[in-house]
Amino acid sequence: MASINKAILIGHLGKDPEVRYMPNGKAVANVTMATSDSWKDRTTGEKQERTEWHNLVFYSPLAEIVGQYVRKGSLIFVEGRLQTRKWQDKNTGQDRYMTEIIVNEMKMLDRKGDRSGGSAPFGPEGPDERYAPASRPQAQAAPAATRFPSSPQGGPDNDGFDDDIPFIHADYAHSLSDNTAAKTLTRESGNEIPW
Fold it and tell me: Could you report the per-residue pLDDT of 78-110, keeping only the tens digit for each?
């Protein structure tokens, strides 16, 4: 039976990318990304929020692009696969594990004028020429702030979805691309967001 190993996330970076080079000259960038989920508690009516942190790994040429154009706080879309590394702690000798997302596609979602700028989609081969000029991929203007309609199911307590969270709701994840071709997702206003 076939299996699928795919992760699709939209979130904010928790730190500036750490770019280093392997002996073969290829770049590798590591960064953490935060995704959040929020809901209203049924009993208290208070807003609750849970943040998950994800370890992202980018290889050349995406590593150079990430190192040059994104910073702590940047909002990005990533698509990749999960991979778990195992190593032995030098001090204790114990086995250690880390699950990472090996990114094969990335898109900067910050609005024009934001610190990282740009909104051009990037895949393993670099910027998609349909969306960004080759000389300056960060110059492409991003779509206006995106708001998705409320979910009838809501968060863990099914109280309704809070529209204030700047992350895509799980109900819309199926609309994201499953390959490197650009897809669109329609907002409440009817405008299209290039993915």
Answer: 999 999 999 899 999 999 999 999 999 999 998
* Inside any domain, residue 158: no
CB-neighbour burial class of residue 74 (10 A; exposed 0-12, middle 13-18, buried 19+): buried
What is the CATH classification number for the domain harbouring 11?
Answer: 2.40.50.140
For residue 57, the enclosing domain spans 7-144
Residue type, 95: D
How many domains, the chain? 1
Q: How many CA atoms lie within 13 A of 182 on its CB side?
A: 16
Residue type, 68: Q
First-to-final CA distance of the chain: 30
